[in-house]
Amino acid sequence: MEIRWFIGVAAAALLATVSCGPRATPEECIGACRNYDRLMAVAEAERNRAALEAIDLEQKSLEAALERELQALDDEADRMLDLVEDDDERAALIEEYEARVEAKQSEFQPRFEMLEEARALGHGAADEEEVLAGCTDRCLEGRTGKHTADCRANAVDLAEFQMCR
């Protein structure tokens, strides 16, 4: 019976120590949140690097395809212009060539825009101040302890950050 009573008192004392320990100040919470934001940015960059490299490769491929198409139009226009000597006919050929070039560029434009949208998503444009404010609020409302906030502020990677309790 005495052992149970002793264990109960020890558990209550431990709980009181943990729950009544010093709390993190807003500055300490901000430090922990800034570190979390930095660690998340590093992790996100590593995840997105492969996706962004694939987007860059696709864009280069698309640019090369457009260049080949435009070169073919150039070659055809040069051949046609060599055959025509009348200035009015040459002007009409040049006008037709310019319209075909514009049409070809318009044909490729939606694909270039899709790649730009994918690139923007890959960079993850979150509002940093809003994220920091939300993290700080959770830290203060959750009554995070000073030790935990200090541990999180000094963590060097996400695994270490998540181990802080």
Q: Overview of this structure, please?
A:
This protein is an all-alpha fold. It has one domain (26-163). The chain is 85% helix and 0% strand. It has 6 helices and no strands. The chain has helices at residues 2-19, 26-83, 87-123, 128-141, 146-153, 158-163. The longest helix is centred in the first third of the chain and has 58 residues, at 26-83. The protein is rod-shaped, with a radius of gyration of 32 Å.
Characterize this entry briefly.
The protein has 165 residues and is mainly alpha-helical. It is built from 6 helices and no strands.
Task: Note the main attributes of this structure.
165 residues; mainly alpha
Mean pLDDT: 82
**Radius of gyration over alpha carbons?**
32 Å
Beta-strand percentage range? under 5%
Q: What structural class should be given to the helix and strand makeup?
A: mainly alpha
The largest β sheet comes out as: none
Discrete helix count: 6
- Portion in helices: over 70%
Intertermini distance: 33 Å
Total number of distinct structural domains: 1
Unreliable segments (pLDDT under 50, ≥5 consecutive)? none
Outline, from the CA principal axes? rod-shaped
Number of beta strands: 0
Summarize the helix and strand pattern as letters: HHHHHH
Secondary structure: elements and pairs:
Blueprint: H1 2-19, H2 26-83, H3 87-123, H4 128-141, H5 146-153, H6 158-163
